[in-house]
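Exercise: predict the structure of this protein bound to tryptophan.
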Amino acid sequence: MSRSARLVPAVAALLALALTATACDGGVRGTPGGSGVRDPYFPKAGNGGYDVTHYALTLDYTPATRHLTAKAVITARATQDLSAFDLDLAGLHVEKVTVEGRQARWNRAGQELTVRPHDDLGKGETFSTTVRYSGTPRTLTDPDGSEEGWLRTADGALGLGEPVGSMAWFPGSNHPSDKATYDITVTVPKGLQAVSNGELTEQTDKGGRTAYHWHTGQPMASYVATVAIGHYDITRTTGPHGLPVITAVDPTRAKASAKALAKIPEIIDWEETNFGPYPFSSTGAIVDRPGDAGYALETQNRPVFPADQFDTSTLVHELAHQWYGDSVTPRSWRDMWLNEGFATYAEWLYEEDFGDKSAQETFTELYEDDDEAVWAFPPAKPSSAAHISDSPVYQRGAMVLQKIRQKVGDDTFYEIIQGWAAAHRHSTASTADFTAYVEKKAPDKDFSGIWKDWLYGDGRPDHP
Ligand code: TRP
Ligand code: ZN
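Solution:
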């Protein structure tokens, strides 16, 4: 029996305060972990004091009532002695939190769910937190005006998370720097399907409902986690070297999508030639109706496409993100060009190989075009959170890669882009890591002008 259980509540509360202010029984004396990881664009995203290693999410959702009943079991390692730590969660009703099996206290302020475990956690300790929660998940509006989080669709729902929307459907450390493996089990009314990242390991019917268990064995950033609930035509085929290709298509779009879907294996094959081994244990696509999301997103293993944007270049782009973004993940949202510049460059390369324009021609056209938007800010320094998905990040990001190619030639260039994907595979990396990597690969070349003018400099550089 705990000591405080015999005391009246007010005294117990005082004692609890005293216990956290001085050393606890176990000897560990921690401090709070902090509400964010100081991302320059999303300061409250992620949390300090621990690293998540695994999420086990059990979601039960009914589209007709839009009600979610859920449990998240979060396994994490403390990176400091902790008296309290935060999880990111937007909306929803928290019913119960336990840490290491013991009831924890918690409170909420904005997107921060602050958990105070019964016992302080020691630095290096692996601990398990269980959050039971429910309600109608929210659709969030990003600084750039797009919608993410939990989106309602004609026959179900779509969970999307770039940049911060995953906190609308599960609590966690919602920042790309904290990747983890996932088990996502989604239970829906029988007749509906639930598709997620990774591979389907189990499907069970119980009492008029079906549970789909998806396992993601390679580290995943929360912003590329997804669930898609509704009616889908699901197809399983294999791609290069037996890679499972799992696709889910809204039945009303099946016919129109068939041609693009069939291209997935050959695009993966072409990307492996250019970028190196595919980083995950399965691939595929989720194709929804045009209005459901309104944009494509590189959700891990299985990008989401609105049917009207399901074309070859978007497919090349989202699949390229599996290497650049999903496997090599930006350390902060400032490093976003490492995603979008590379994925855009993949489109240029595809056009060079199969279309009628070289990447250099695409570069020159952009340079000579009068479109001022491309020069609005440097790719490695977006002007604000509202602009992280603007054309300087995409087009000018790709132009940085073309500048590197100009300087080093094709052989070294391919060594660089493949080596970069290999060096930071399943991890995170920053712009500074990238420039250092390029310099290491071509020690006889001077890149300082490219970094200064193309990566960090304002306005259109004087020379193409
Ligand atoms: N990452 C997506 C792509 O280019 C685009 C995107 C969707 C996005 N939602 C976003 C970019 C939110 C930044 C922020 O494939
Ligand atoms: Zn992209």
